[in-house]
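Tutorial handout. Part one gives the primary structure; part two gives the three-dimensional structure as tokens.
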Amino acid sequence: MTDPIPSTIREIRKQLRLAMNGVVSTSMREKGATYKLNFGVSLPKIKEIAATFAPDPELAEALWQEDVRELKILATLLQPIDRFDREQAVRWASMVGQSEIAECYTTFLLQKLPYARELAMQWIGSSEELMQLQGFLLAARVCQQGQILTPQEAEHLIGEAKTVMDAGVSRTQRAALLALKHYGRQSQSMASAVLSALADYPASGSPEKQEFYEDLKFEFDYYQ
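Part two.
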């Protein structure tokens, strides 16, 4: 029996070529987003293409193996949730490669998994930057969904976020800040816990730390 996956991927590539935007792909490359191949296709168009194919774990796995921006994003859209185990989730996370793919992976797939919270708590302590980035992005999504962290999980999140933010501005720091925002939005006591952990920031003499603190304080004042 003929394997339908290669022909399906050829059809996907054909649709991507028709929608490609060289200006966008060049701009992304100049900003540091380097892929083996980047068609520069917009996210709405990628979602439109994904909608023409049935979710399929074998197809998603084949797409994820490619170092092609659009194929990796399509993989996160076409992977069935109930056919994605923890081992595969970790393996995919180790192959993300770019922060944009980390965001898509977190948004379109990871946050929907029943064990998303466990993965978030595990990854925020990782020494690998992209893995830690995914951990904070996922923690933000989990809190946004209204899941309440245990006291131990909350302490872990706030502690790891502060460590990252103490180190200065980075893509991981921005994800950590986002996670703290969504955590603190849940209640006044949670917001207070975040601000208390960063109580040394206003008088630190660091413009970055002062901005982090004021950003969080403004966020919590607005939502509560």
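Part three, for discussion. The chain has 13 helices and no strands. The mean pLDDT is 93.
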